[in-house]
Design a protein that fits this description.
This protein is an alpha+beta fold. It has helices spanning about 15-25, 40-50, 80-89, and strands at about 1-10, 30-35, 55-60, 65-70. It has one domain: Glutaredoxin (3-Layer(aba) Sandwich). A four-stranded mixed sheet has the order 2-1-3-4, with helices on both faces. A hairpin with a 5-residue loop joins strand 3 (about 55-60) and strand 4 (about 65-70).
């Protein structure tokens, strides 16, 4: 099983759009608001080199490892990210 974590910030229209589409597709996810989780977000930015939202982390439930997907690098639209998620989870 895989966990979907979405790094977002309040007021971000792209973040809101992705979360809405995930809900419409019944894809469970955990929303991580970066202003409330600054140290975790800093770690994501250091590992990826990207400070852009919404960033998606697909985590392996067994060991906590996983893959980070950033907009512009790994997907261009929320629909594209939804299709990626459907294939992985």
């Amino acid at each position: 099983m895989k966990n979907v974590l979405i790094f977002t910030i309040n007021g971000c229209s792209h973040c809101r759009e992705l979360k809405t589409k995930l809900n419409e597709q019944s894809i469970p996810f955990k929303d991580i608001e970066i202003t409330l989780n600054r140290s975790l977000w800093k770690q994501v930015v250091e590992q990826t080199g990207f400070d852009i939202l919404p960033t998606v982390f697909i985590q392996n439930e067994n060991d906590g490892s996983g893959t980070v997907y950033t907009p512009g690098r790994d997907f261009q639209t929320s629909d594209e990210m939804i299709e990626i998620l459907k294939k992985i989870i």
